[in-house]
Queue: 2 jobs
Job 1
Amino acid sequence: MEASSLAAGGSLADSLKSCIHNEDAWRLPATADASSAVSAHLALSRWAVAGIGAGLPAQELSATTPADSYTVGVNLRSTDITFLHDGRLTFEGRVMPGMFQVTSPGHSARAVFHTACDVLHLYVPQAVLDACHREVSGKESAMSVLIDDPAVSHDPCIERLGQALLLADEAFTSFGQMYVDSINLALVSRLLELRLRTPAGGQPGQPKMRRSALPKWRLKRAVEYIDAHLAEAIGLEDVANAAGLTRMHFAAQFRAATGLRPHEYLLRRRIECAQQLLADEEYSLLDAAQLAGFRSQAHFTTVFKRMVGSTPKRWRDTHHARA
């Protein structure tokens, strides 16, 4: 692996600073010595900006992918974004952790971040894809394609691989580079797998259902209702009513628009709310659970660990130690 990027504020351990570096410019891989023979041509960087939203101006960024490699963006936190591929609007709205986008060689990308963002960028040379194909098939073939659809998609496996990078500081002191290299290759293999499963004209890992996606104005109503009532019990009918639809129609269209079921989206927003509360020492674990809308601390702990990869207490202790 050639380079990787540490986010603003530093969320990986010092032992990984030589492995994952912060990008100086959006989608511009950081430079570092290539120390791994396993994935020497892969590069991983991280782009994180906190000062956006809440009255602060949006940030508009653009970049063109090199002619010999792909750029894979893996989102690490929920953010509001407008994304254009070769000048064409491909996504506008809320992206959640685990959502990803692949820009093919020589194509341009432009993004407007309306709220704080945190994104991993994996740079995958064509030569790496061809080597992966030879490894699996045992023969040469026509040029391998990673993903030829620029749409924003969601995949649970890619989300967990992104989480694994963020938790590396809890598990490694000396072998961080090897660990990150392995996850880079795992990300590439997962994207290639999704490529094989994608029907013509479809999105990676998702059924073709964008035609019936929830209109932007209805989605905005639903998201705003959820955010305004996180501390309360929220049912599917409540959110559907806010969007002006029946439960059945709303659930299908919401998933088509976001890649997530309404309940899964709600849980993710509750966990993000809890993380914000846990970052403040004023709130106890129970306070965070209740204010985020969980009715029991046991359920809160179970969901938190599943989505974040760590218990609430361990996450809070690690966060405060870094601060």
Job 2
Amino acid sequence: MYAAGSTRSQVSAELRAGRWQRTGPQTVVTFSGPLPRDTQQWVAVLEGGLRAALDGEAGLEAAGLEGWRPSVRIRVSVPRGARVRRTRLADVRQTRRWDAADVAPTGVPHTRPEVAAVRALLWARSDTQGALLLTMAVQQGLTSAERVAEQALRVRRDPRRALLHATVLDLLHGARTLSEGEFVRACRERGLPEPVVNARRGPDGRHVVDAVWEEWGVVVEIDGVQHSWATHVVADALRQNALTLTDHVVLRLPLLGYRAAPGEFFAQIECALRASGCPLPHRPATAAG
């Protein structure tokens, strides 16, 4: 405002007269009365600073989400280390997930819908609210289940990671499991030797692995949603450690990763087999899928 030619005394005079109103430490609007929602969004972002962006539920709202009653306070994300200014309107928070590439190129600064949908689930007041927000974003065409799945794979640790994967898998046609036959067929289609599935390994044979190429010492463990549950974490870790002690290469294939980006994960399996001496024919690189 000052750069546009207004002086501090002029701004103060307009505020005292009630023709303008202060909306935060950094912002003033040049009218009186209630603020339209789009003005509220801009105020929230400007209060957040140069690298601020509407995020989560607020990011979806800015992208056009309909049929949802938004929160009064607008969630704004800034990177770690940025100054945080919270106001009655703006809920500004630092996040380690902030990335400039995630910000939509047009409109009020907001995260892209697939990014906002994932974070809306992680940050919602309840599991039900979070799953509903993510589902609505896909159903209303703001983004696709495939793009959301790609973003979900970026989440390494979060209390709602299992819920996130389950919700996305439901949107990907309800495919929450991967059968033995489906995995073996996928290996065959990609020119890989067939593994032994559900094989018992370990000193006493009590560890069951999902797939193993014993000749080359390569194991693939397929992580379904249940592998994020606390009751499975210890057993999974013990099984992997036991295999590592017997010089096996253990690769983890999250079910969501298989559904969203199978080519990339199978390329890793192929690389592990080659490195272990498997005589696979060389072929030109193809797009992941």
